[in-house]
Amino acid sequence: MKKKIIPLALFAYVGMMYPGRKRKDPILNVKHYAHRGFHSEEGVPENSMAAFRRAKELGYGIEMDVQLTKDNVMVIHHDYHLKRTCGVNRYIKDLTYEELSKYRLMGTRERIPRFVDVLREIDGAVPLLIELKMETFNTTLCRLAAEALDHYHGLYCMESFHPYALYWFKKHRPQVIRGQLSEQFFKEKEWKHAPGYFAVKNLLTNFVTKPDFIAYHYKYKDCLPLKICRKLYHMPIYGWTFRSREAYEENQKYFHGFIFEKFMI
């Protein structure tokens, strides 16, 4: 009996990673994305308008993080909490945009920008890799981001750690290129050990969400789910986050694209 179960389990494991028919889109040919904008210079903090302008000047694609304030304003910020970036013991979801706009980023004059203002500033000059920050199955952020992007004329794609964000776009904006963010969560201290993370780290929701690409922590380039998606399903794999030229150059053969910071390519 065990001899029958093992092949069936392996078949199911591999089958759940199947992303469906591969699409072609120009943005997937863009190799380099500045992580949270290009913020390697003094006075230019991550995910700030200054960082996005600098990336635009240098011609890099831009990776950014979008989340909602208490009054459902889309803002660009990575952490859900403001302690690291603004020195304030508050969560973004507990503040209105007006309240949030009083804080400065990393001790600079820069403030947390609105998503719509960033779209207006970039205006299609470089491609955008937009991460949707979702903690629950509430898809308000998906809807608002999609509505804003409906009027945007530049190249962009979306990604998220939360598979339900990808599913929402598959159902409501199937033309939008979507990517599954992941890593080996249980090897990283900041992640919780929960069943959902097991599914995401192994890319087991692919057969439902049908991602066009995978964005995975580059140091886990040889993990089994990436090998399967790379070699069997020929999926584009983007590596994050490269913080040195040495790491970037050593991993050229493993990735189609590179999300990087703190150096120029």
Automatic annotation (TrEMBL):
GO terms for biological process: lipid metabolic process. GO terms for molecular function: phosphoric diester hydrolase activity. Residues 30-265 form the GP-PDE domain. Gene3D superfamilies: Phosphatidylinositol (PI) phosphodiesterase. This is Glycerophosphodiester phosphodiesterase.
